[in-house]
Amino acid sequence: MNDRFIENLVPPDIKMKHLDIWVHGREFPDSDEYWDSNWLRATAHCSLSGARVTASGSILHLSEIHSWLTELET
C-alpha cells in the first residue's frame, strides 16, 4: 500500500498519536457466529521517525477493540 492511498482515505475512525485506523466494515456481515461476525476489515497506518507501516485486511476483532477501550478507560 502506498502513501498516496493513505492520503486519499477519509479521516481515520481511530487516531492515537502516530497510529491511524480506518474501519471499512465487517468481514462477514451476514454471519451470526460470534467469531466470524466480529472480524473487521480495516487499514492501520503508523508513521514515526521516518518509518511507515501499513496493514490492511480483516485484522481487527471487535473483542480486541473492546479490550483496548477497557484498558484505555482504566
Summarize this entry quickly.
Helices cover 30% and strands 43% of the residues. It has 74 residues and is of the alpha+beta class. It has a 4-stranded antiparallel β-sheet.
Draw up the topology in text.
Blueprint: H1 3-8, E1 14-16, E2 19-26, H2 34-37, E3 39-48, E4 51-61, H3 62-73
Antiparallel strand pairs: 1-2, 2-3, 3-4
InterPro entries: WapI (IPR056510)
Protein traits:
single chain, 74 residues, alpha+beta, 30% helix, globular
Task: Describe the overall structure.
With 74 residues, the protein is an alpha+beta fold. It has one domain. The chain contains 3 helices and 4 strands; from the N terminus they run αββαββα. It has helices at residues 3-8, 34-37, 62-73; strands at residues 14-16, 19-26, 39-48, 51-61. The chain has a 4-stranded antiparallel β-sheet. Strand 3 (39-48) and strand 4 form a beta hairpin. The longest helix has 12 residues, at 62-73. The radius of gyration is 14 Å and the shape is globular. The termini are far apart. The model has no long low-confidence stretch (mean pLDDT 90). InterPro entries: WapI (IPR056510).
The fraction of residues in strands falls at 35-45%
The biggest sheet, with number of strands, parallel, antiparallel or mixed sense and barrel status, is:
4 strands, antiparallel
Terminal Cα separation, in Å? 34 Å
**Run of helices and strands:** HEEHEEH
- Helix count from the secondary structure assignment: 3
Number of strands: 4
